[in-house]
Amino acid sequence: MGKSTDIARAKARRLKGMIKESDGIALENERLKAEGRKEQAEARREEALARTARAASDR
């Protein structure tokens, strides 16, 4: 898959995590907040890897 697609997919996943975390805050649900934070962290890692791969292939 293309690097740009991987970056966009990671950003969408991070947004999903943000929504999940905000739902957890609104519902006072600690498990949901934690899941959202975890998903955001994983998505940030995936995005960084995709950006690194893209930069390496541009050289």
UniProtKB/TrEMBL annotation:
Biased composition (Low complexity): 50-59
Domain of life assignment: Bacteria
Ranges of Basic and acidic residues composition bias in the record: 36-49
Segments of this protein annotated with the region Disordered: 36-59
Protein name: CsbD family protein
